[in-house]
Specification:
Elements lengths: L1 H12 L4 H17 L5 H10 L5 H10 L9 H12 L6 H13 L3 H14 L5 H13 L3 H10 L5 H13 L3 H13 L6 H14 L2 H13 L6 H13 L3 H9 L6 H13 L3 H13 L6 H14 L2 H13 L6 H13 L3 H9 L7 H13 L3 H14 L4 H13 L3 H14 L7 E6 L2 E6 L8 H17 L15 H9 L2 H12 L6 E5 L5 H13 L4 E4 L4 E5 L2 E2 L6
This protein binds one DNA strand through helix 2, helix 4, helix 6, helix 8 and helix 10.
GO molecular function, one term: zinc ion binding
Protein name: DYW domain-containing protein
InterPro entries: DYW_dom, E2_motif, E_motif, PPR_At4g14850-like_plant, PPR_rpt, TPR-like_helical_dom_sf
DNA sequence: CTGGCCAATA
């Protein structure tokens, strides 16, 4: 940057031919934008000094200001200015850069306008622009448009395939991501480490351990360069698929570990409830002179919260502040959770009151869960009011409030809340559990019997329910929302999505294969109890990853020690 | 004169 500034000064103090002057300034803009120590404000100032910037200068400034750590719509504004002026004419570089900018700030509307610009200007046949469009729609989670763009590409290269795969991976469409990966190979396109990162992330998201293992073997067999990103993706995949030991092995073998690698490992240990290992990893990380960041502390604090380690949590909170990490909403969430789980609801409430940032619905919801657990009706009502003000259409909030009243035997108030749900016509997010069998991820939604083997699953479920009640279990029916008779409530519990997935697992696999389930919500208490019993009666290890953490059910007990 | 795809988050 220093040398660049010197050259800049020279340019300004000497009389150069105008074309040389413009060219040189454009180069400076390009360098500023590109270099790691780039200064985009400086680049912008230099850009404004160029008498008649050519397309290269415009491209440089558009690309440059989309690469800052605080993304903004600035590059899009530059593009708009360029289009308005009508000169110089934009080229394929311009369009690819501005699409990239739109994908970073998720500017769907602006991106669509750029898309129509692409069509008008005839750059729709540029492979770079095509890929940029696929990426843009993928990042904005408009997967149909992304796929449409992708399908329209006549000859898809590695980057185009990888872009589409990562689009699917991002929104958790694993089967589609993996299907495309196979299709890509059939088309004779050889995947590289970037492709592998995307498919492996898809496995992590869906808990597809077998496919993940297969991909890892593929990487080794085809000598794909296992760089920092790919190793991190593998650590994350093994951790999210329930193989924390394997995750550790991959992590230990990494020659270089950055903040993201350490954070992945720490978050992985945290969701497995290995709180001692989390502490150890954090001190090793500091010893290795890798700076923990906001994500690292989310892992550390959530580990403390989930294991009830209040004093450790407080200790890490102060060390986080000392290390200069600005606490974000997530960190406050962890602390509120930490205090609530330790039954310090009043303290959690004052903690929220004194937060320097305005609490979001998630914070209030954690508090409400805490109030429910502690049967603190007075605080609970206050908290629920705040929450419902902010999020009047989220069924989960009403369910929590209803459960709060149920916990305090306030039946009139409870039925009033349930009536509100009905009157407002709001629907709860349905529970959804998935299980990987033979390289395919099967999804089960609560009470949904559309699976092709529904009949067989129903039989397994009946068998389960008979044997479980034979073992003396009585369904804990107050977890059921709807106004229905006890018998109905019992069968509703029996149709919770994880039960369907477990039944399918029992049907399709044999011991000693572990049944691995991924669930989008938290497991209810009855399902938790029943799964423990199943693990004993059927002598099958069952691993459930819920929205928060892992539960390993072995021979009648769970790794979370019933604290979750 | 420049270029498209990738890792961790309550």
């Amino acid at each position: 940057m220093r040398i660049l500034r010197q050259i800049h000064a020279r340019l300004l103090t000497h009389p150069w031919p105008i074309s040389t002057f413009s060219f040189a300034l454009s180069k400076i803009v390009g360098f500023c934008a590109l270099s790691a120590h780039g200064d985009i404000d400086y680049a912008t100032r230099v850009f404004s000094q160029i008498p008649s910037p050519n397309i290269f200068s415009w491209n440089s400034i558009i690309r440059g200001c989309s690469q800052t750590q605080n993304p903004s719509k600035e590059p899009i504004l530059f593009f708009k200015k360029l289009v308005k002026r009508g000169y110089p004419k934009s080229n394929s570089f311009t369009l690819a850069f501005v699409l990239k900018a739109c994908s970073i700030v998720l500017a769907l509307e602006e991106g669509r306008q750029v898309h129509s610009h692409v069509m008008r200007s005839g750059f729709d046949s540029s492979p770079f622009v095509q890929t940029a469009l696929v990426n843009f729609y993928g990042k904005c989670e408009d997967i149909r448009s992304a796929k449409k763009m992708f399908d329209e590409i006549p000859d898809r290269n590695l980057v185009a395939w990888t872009t589409m795969i990562s689009g699917y991976a991002k929104i958790g469409m694993v089967n589609e991501a993996l299907g495309l990966f196979r299709e890509m190979q059939k088309a004779g396109v050889v995947p590289d480490e970037v492709t592998m990162v995307s498919v492996i992330s898809a496995c992590a998201a869906s808990g597809a351990l077998d496919v993940g293992r297969w991909l890892h073997a593929y990487i080794d067999k085809h000598l794909i360069n296992t760089d920092l990103e790919l190793s991190t993706a593998l650590v994350n995949m093994y951790a999210k698929c329930g193989c924390i030991e394997r995750a550790k092995e991959v992590f230990e073998a990494m020659p270089v570990k950055d903040t993201k690698a350490w954070s992945s490992m720490i978050v992985g240990l945290a969701i497995h409830g290995h709180v001692e290992d989390v502490s150890e990893a954090l001190s090793k990380m500091e010893k290795a002179k890798v700076k923990p960041n906001d994500v690292t502390f989310i892992g550390v604090l959530s580990a403390c919260a989930h294991s009830g380690r209040v004093s450790d949590g407080r200790k890490y909170w102060s060390s986080m502040l000392e290390s200069g990490v600005e606490p974000s909403m997530e960190h406050y969430g962890c602390m509120v959770d930490l205090l609530c789980r330790a039954n310090l609801v009043e303290e959690a409430y004052s903690f929220v009151e004194t937060m320097p940032i305005t609490p979001n619905p998630i914070i209030w919801r954690i508090l409400l869960v805490g109030c429910k657990k502690n049967r603190n009706l007075d605080k609970g009502e206050i908290v629920a009011n705040r929450l419902l003000e902010l999020e009047p259409l989220n069924a989960e909030n009403y369910i929590l409030l209803s459960n709060l009243y149920a916990s305090g035997s306030q039946w009139v108030k409870m039925s009033h809340v349930r009536k509100q749900i009905k009157d407002k016509g709001i629907k709860a997010v349905p529970g959804c559990s998935s299980i990987e069998v033979d390289g395919y991820v099967h999804e089960f939604v609560m009470g949904d019997w559309s699976h092709s083997e529904a009949k067989e699953i129903r039989e397994v479920l009946r068998d389960i329910s008979e044997r479980v009640s034979g073992a003396g279990h009585e369904p804990w029916i107050s977890a059921v929302l709807h106004d229905m008779g006890d018998e109905e409530k019992e069968s509703a519990l029996g149709e919770h999505s994880e039960r369907l997935a477990i039944a399918f697992g029992l049907l399709k696999t044999k011991a000693p294969v572990v049944i691995r389930i991924v669930k989008n919500l938290r497991v209810c208490e009855d399902c938790h109890e029943v799964t423990k019993i199943i693990s004993k009666l059927f002598q099958r290890d069952i691993i459930v990853r819920d929205r928060i953490r892992f539960h390993k059910f072995v021979n009648g007990s769970c790794s979370c020690k019933d604290f979750w």
